[in-house]
# Entry
Amino acid sequence: MIVYWQIFKANFIANMLGYGGGPATIPLLEHEVVNTYHWYTTQEFSEIVALGNGLPGPIATKLAAQIGFDLGGTLGAFIALVATIAPTMILMLILLGVLMKFKHSPIVVRLTLYVRPAIAVLLGAMTYNFFFNASENAGITHTAIIAGASFLLLEKFKVNPVYVVLGALLYGGIFLS
Amino acid sequence: MIHRYIFLAFFRAGMLGYGGGLSAIPIMHREVVTVYRWMEAEEFADIIALANTLPGPVNTKIAGYVGWRVAGFWGMMNALIASVIPTAFLMVLILTTLNAFKDSAFVQGMTKAVLPVAGVMIGVLAWDFVRLSKKTMGWAITIVFLIISIVVMELLHIHPALLIAGFIGAAFVIPTKKKGEEKRVDKQ
# Structure
């Protein structure tokens, strides 16, 4: 029973604090499920993030569903999704009139602006952890090859992430097994 | 009939949008404004702006709100289900299958190779957030905020919630000055 409450709390906190859309919630969610509850190791969480990024659709809900399902089956996934979507959806419906009126108010605009650097730092720390763990697991050379190749493919050649993730999986299956 | 359209519109937007919610927004715009004409471009732009000022995933809020406007509560539920459930199901299906073969050396190699890719994806996101901050607040303020964040979260290990609550408080407390700041903010 307690685990359902924790699933709800972890997703609720991450999504209520994540200003800047779904991606902003990723490091906050990591903080909850890796640091606070120890449900996953950094390696396990990175697998979920990479696969989530390789699939279409909103990232926060994919992560929520996976975490909820791992810990509490279908009901867990459902609870995680509700915690992710419902609170801000309800806020949006309630505050619509008020926010419409103040949408150009410097305070409302500033909310997102001020939180952004904090999210950037969380994402930066997460990047460091991912690479640190990667070089322990796969060695520095393989990590550099995979990271370099995926950076070029994703950012320079704008390859669809699904192919990049598939390519990395294949590379790992062949060279890292 | 209307529910079929709502489902189709947001199912397509969900399945075709890669890299988190933001890439789905132009697709949603097409479905909502051009294909089904549920609202004018201007109103849709307002909804995006609004969804951005609230925390959490952006496109579920947009989908839910459009569904609500078109067909009330069940329209909202329909739009939310269409944009969330198919990809969430796909995710769980693939990862569970992968985990079932965890003992195979090939799959173990596969999971090792995924970490650097995830690192690159998150690193690019981190840089995007820094760049956006610089664009809207300038380097000086951005760097001060970054340093505060590093000290509070990474050195003092204080929970991110407290820091973010602090920044939100600052947004309300710091007096609005110079017209210049507002203008830069608006351009964003």
Notes: Chain B touches chain A through 95 residues (CB under 8 Å). Chain B has seven helices and no strands.
